[in-house]
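Me: I keep going back and forth on a fold encoding question. No explanation is needed for now; the record alone will do.

Assistant:
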Amino acid sequence: MEKINIQPVKNYGIKATVAQTLATVAQSFLLIGLGMELTVSTLVIGDLRSSSPQSGFSMTQNEASWYGSILFIFHPIGSVMSGFLQERFGRKRCMILANVPSILGWILLYYTNSITMLYVSTISMGMSIGFSEAPIISYVGEVTEPRLRGSMASIASMSSMIGMLLISILGSMYHWRIVALLSIISPVACMCFIACIPESPMWLIAKGRNEEAEKCLCWLRGWVEPNVVKSEFHELIHYNEVSGALQGDSTSRKSSSILQYLALFKDPLVYRPLRLVMLFFFFSFILCLIPCRPFLYIILERVGIFDYHDLILVLLSVLQIMACIITILTVNRLGKRFLTLFSFATNTFLLFAFGGYLIALNNNLISSTRWIPLLIISSIFFFGAYGLSSMPWILLSEIYSNESRGVATGVSAALSYLLIFILTKSYLPVESLLTLEYSIILFAVIGVFGALYSYYYLPETENKTFLEIEEFFALNKRVH
């Protein structure tokens, strides 16, 4: 196979960094809303599963299991829909429309007075999350320079952590109904901010709207004149023309029919990165304790630190944001591969330590000490956010070919949240069967396999162009 000549992309300097940061921050308000929607169930379950709920109705363990996971059933529907629609209507329009079901979900949660209404509100939120994921991922990857792609994608991931922190702070101050009412501000602000940023130049070029694409590219590269971006603009046009050449396909798939899009998944440039990222999602969800998070208050009670649950939730959110900030500052220097392997090893060790502590405590080998489980849980959340939880989403923005990016990211996001649903829904039955301590040990064992898989198959994509990344998957390379 003949290797395609890949030209380095120009470094535009500080003004371009500012412009791309503004665009990333604007669309990241969607992810702030996502973090809020993912976390509010913890507040609701904590209240309705308490001995004296303040909301006029209560919740059984089975209902709590469904409420904590049902959001992830309906997210895939929105993700698949957005994967197709963003190819037709663009990233920007899809991101604006994604806020509508979010607003509806918060209103329904505020007025809910039954378990059924709780389900309906979280279904609406799940549709919003799903509808926003694919355009967010595609947009960040397409509008940023290779030197900034990892940092900008980390900002997007950090935004969901900020949303979790906001819900945690509001939950420590107000009842969850008031929290739901205040949360409406986020999607409304998001619609206003996204209206002010440009459309993806790469999508516009794919649609033959080159003049608009050039104007958007000038905005994103620091509000410069067209002659400044001339080289990169022609490189984008060239990439749009040759993307797919690595698999020896001389025809361009321009049809927008669903069957044509689905046929893309027979392409090695789609199914190989899809396999990689889905396994990455599985391992990272386990090591970051994602299946346990809706039931975090229950776990804190089991380890004897429930009295401070509101403050602990705020602390964990702050730690995750700090980890994301460190990721933003270090990913370009250390690389995504090193951060991933480091986080895999660290969280696997921490899970073994947590499981060992619980086994020793339950067998009366040690006395209960509050600071040990708090330290371990805090460390798991911190190192999970430093490399693990954000990295698969960063990879989604850059590992798919141009012609498949919109649909493939939508399907990937859908499958990831379907995976979260399965893991979350099955967590309580698994814990009942194995007990908490051996469930944690099982997670640690899975982490060992995840670290080994990443060592052999995860490529370094930092500072790589889209064509360089496509070449890796086209040749079916292995890192070691």
